[in-house]
## 1
Amino acid sequence: MSAYRFAAAALLFATPAMAGNKLIVPGERIAVAKSPLTVQPTSEWNRLGARRGRNAETWTIDGDSLNDLTFYGGIETGKPLFREANKRSKPLPTVGATMLVTDIPVLFENTYRIALGTATMTVGTIEPVTFAGAKGVRFTYDFVREDETLHRRGEARGAFVGGRLYLVTYEAPALHYYDRSVAAARQVAESARL
Amino acid sequence: MRTIAAALAATLLGAVPLAGAAAPVADKIAPLPPYVAAYQPTNVDERGAWMMADEYERHLRDSPEVIRDPALNAYVRGVLCRTVGDDRCKGVRLYILHIPAFNASMTANGAMTIWSGALLRLRSEAELGAVLGHEFGHFELRHTVEGFRNQRRGTDVMAWASVLMTNSAALQVGVLGSLYRFDRGQEQAADMLGVRYLAGSGYPAAAAADVWERMMSEADATAIGRHRKADQRYTAGFFATHPTELSRATYLRAFASGVDGGGSAEGVRYREALAPWLPMLLTDQIKRNDFGGSEYLLGRLAADGWTTPLLFARGELYRERGNPRDLVNAAEFYEQAIERGDAPPEAQRGLGLALLRGQQTDAGKAALREYLRRKPDAADASIISTLVAS
């Protein structure tokens, strides 16, 4: 029984064939998440080959469990944020055509609750912000992954442009790592343009 | 992810999860066996299982998922003690986990967990007692160690088979099947012991059957809400670790019918004790992206009438699905909650956002202004202000 389930669990966490990780050179404006979204970092980052979804891309400094800057580039109506691990029994919420900016944090929170299997995920402050030239939202969040005790903190910026959702999230362990790279992550998120 | 990871963890730890339950009907209730306290592991298998269970319990000590509220813990423990008796419940450490699904488990060393989703779905002390008694039954019958031994024997056979035979697929299937059947037998035994505790506790013994019947209905509602066929299986498949809910409900009902009356199920007392937790439990459920199951659950909870927290939760459920027809319904539910006079400020927020999404701009803004008036320091006050101003 355990062997059977272990195989199932291993499949769940398996990542697709990797294109390889790549160093992001500071100062250049580059397109992210296979989308029209571009950013211009002023410090070095590493782009991970593994992607959470078709239109997602993750950057990190020390490894994605220590600092994770993820771009979601133009998620269409009816699509979830991530690739669904189990579409049948754990479908993820999808982007809706009539969604308001206040629905972005809700969509993100519910996606994390289901995908990470944790009810500890909560959204903190939600503020208006200009993101990629559009009227958007900035929100903070906190969570602990399933079966862990490490508290993680995050900050996200998002907006709907032309009916598609653009979102940049930064998350890291609240202890040490979050504060260490939050300035660099904010700089990248604030440089976003469409 | 949760179910598989949890099931894997539970298997490794020797915990016996509750989900899914069938047993032979006893002709009459035998007296409960005498209980031996402070049992110590006696052999290498048992010591191993206990060591892993101890480690799991150490993890629970620091886990943010454990709900540590003293009043709630005392209440749930009180029901356990009434069900299984004081001498049996004394050694149990009870952990209430903040996980919005229906489950409970018990490890070999006597650590019992119950998930917050179970507290939301149960309706009375008798039902809670039925679930906790079932888990205690596994512990008293030492199923966790038996299961561990049986599994080890099974996997040893498979390891040898793969070395000795090039094509051992048929044997693997046979061995796997016996493991699952063993689990179903254990579940039945624990069910029957659980219902005997219940019979001796003064709670009505039929409560156990009610739990399984509602679980079937909820699973059907979830499937239909996701545009699938209701796939509730009414016979246990080859790989099923638990009897089907239908067979569980049937044999438990048959057993209960042979037991004299029983006392009150204490449904009112249960609702009162859970009332401070209801908003959190409902919020967790709404966020599961399970419209059909949540709608079914809200309907069952509202069997005695729609209360303010239930109306508010239903508004949130419909607003999050967000079809134009859902937004109309959501606004109606929020309004009904507000009319009752004791709705939280968030009901105005939900009403405003539902109306805004439904193109009723002026009425929506008015509701949002009311939300800001009642909760000026809300975490989302600034973004709501921009929606009102736009």
## 2
Amino acid sequence: MLMTQYQRADAAALDELVRRISPKLLRYFSASRSIRHEAEDVLQECWVRIHRSRHTYRSSEPVMPWIYGIARHTSLDAYRKRKRLESHEVQMDTLPELTGESASSIPAPLERLEALIADLPASQREVIVMLKVMGMSLEEVARATSATIGAVKQKAHRAYRTLRLALSKDDNAR
Amino acid sequence: MPGNRHEDEFDRELEGWAAARPDAQVSPETRIRIHNKLSASLVPVNPIPSVKSLTLILFLVFAVCAGSLITIGDKAGFRLMTGRQMLIMAAVLVAGGVIFSFSLACRMVPGSRPGFPMALALMFWGAGMIGGIALLFPWRNSTAFVSEGWPCAVTELSIALAAAALFWVLAQRGALFPDADLGAALVGLSSALALLVLQFRCMFQNVLHLFVWHVLTAAVLIGTGALAARFYRGRRIH
């Protein structure tokens, strides 16, 4: 309903959408370790993309997968841009340790899991974030990532297996 | 089960990690900044047609272009192919048109369900093409394999590039986020069109010629399209 009003250029609907959806998007962007510190900038960029793409929303379709479909690309672009900048900065030997930033927001016992999740392939990490952090259903994740439900299940399964194996190795090493 | 960590313990740890995400409070300044930025260009927009309608539009363009090009061009293929060869090859190539029209339409609308992975679509369509050619056409050696073949590859390339430009313009109606799948869908649709036209124009209807100068050229084009879309995205975010 709000989206339809937004498509009709209703400024109040836009304001309400920004108020309701921004916290969810910020939570989504903050879940990615490498762009966490610039999540608010990414959020703004995401809203610009949502605005440019608003004609592609259809009222018969669920709104959140549409939003996350755009947010996902914004996040991926920000991540790649960050990686590129990091590689330049590392070459100049001036990059502060980014991974340290995350430690403050995550309880110490979970830091190990946080680090392992950060090391997962991007496609598996985004599925874990959408399923666990954002609480999305398999159907919603499939729509947001333009994948089939089977592909989402497979990525989640592979991610869980990798994480379980790594955690078990750590346990055995102690 | 991988490792010896208990599943419940792992689930608890993962749920704990998800719950420990930092609080996502958007500052009022950011909200106002977003609102001001967007409201400056807030005008009514018409919603895009559904994925089904977009698929139909793309396929109609595919069919009209193929039909026109076949009509105005050389029709050697009609004379050289049997009815069975024509029917099956046309069916496989038109199926490619439907598959890639749907894939491209899905990529124009964020949050739409693709139904099948692009890799699987390419695999099945490729298998259909290769199987159809291998079973329907004769294996004949030619002493002028290259000189007979390269004009076909050039024609295919020209038609596919022009068609890709046309479909790219049409796809701009949606919200495009370039990636390998988008590149493959766009060039796949253009290549299917080029292959369909070429199939009815070509006067060398034998397996080796069709494999190398038609199908292989299309495969190279689709691969290049996928890579180009990835590269384009990489450049765009630089």
